[in-house]
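As noted in the main text, all predictions were made from sequence alone. Below is one such record, for C4-type zinc ribbon domain-containing protein.
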Amino acid sequence: MNAAPADQIRLLDLQALDTRLGQLAHKRKSLPEHAEIQTLEGDLAQHRDLLVAAQTQESDTAREQAKAEQDVDQVRQRAARDQQRLDSGAGMSPKDLENLQHEVASLAKRQGDLEDVVLEVMERREAAQERVKELTGRVESVQAKVNDAAARRDAATEAIDAEVATVTKERELVAATIPDALLKLYDKLRVQQGGVGAARLYQRRCEGCRLELNITEVNEVRAAAADEVVRCENCRRILVRTPESGL
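Prediction:
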């Protein structure tokens, strides 16, 4: 393939732009905020699970407390009715009065036991409520950190994307000045060779594979016409000759 020396030189400009685009893509993918957000979201999920468990426990103890208080209220109402009957004593035999006194005493003990249950449940519910409050604070704190990291990531991504747009536009302008056949060869090699399709020959060394040309290869390149597109014998990239090639 033949191409004007100036067109071959422009391949180095194009390669520099493609290299920059590759660097920007890597930078975008490797932003430290990505790992930070992933870690924080793992913590957030764990704290949310704990919060749901605590809220469930608080809800369960709330129902348990309501049931215990209902039991106390029922015993209290029955005890009040029995006490009213005992106080009136109307139409009751001594034996009935004695039995009623025992029942009132029994209900009083039962009420005391149930009130103890209510207190115990209330203590557990208060502990659950404190746990819910604590975990809610943790979730909010971690969520705030996630939001902050996401904002920093988005700002960094926006800046990178803006530079990508600028470099891409510049690449289009440079690519438009290169003959189609040469550009197609360059693009093909760039895909095959890890993003580098053209390399400068500097002081008899290919800057693509970093290997120095042997004397036979140097003589072949030296003998090639100025418009001949030469390739590195080692990496097969387009070898661009410049005044600093050492030929």
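The chain is about 75% helix and 5% strand. The first strand starts at residue 198 and ends at 202. These features were considered when defining construct boundaries for the mutagenesis experiments described in Section 2.9.
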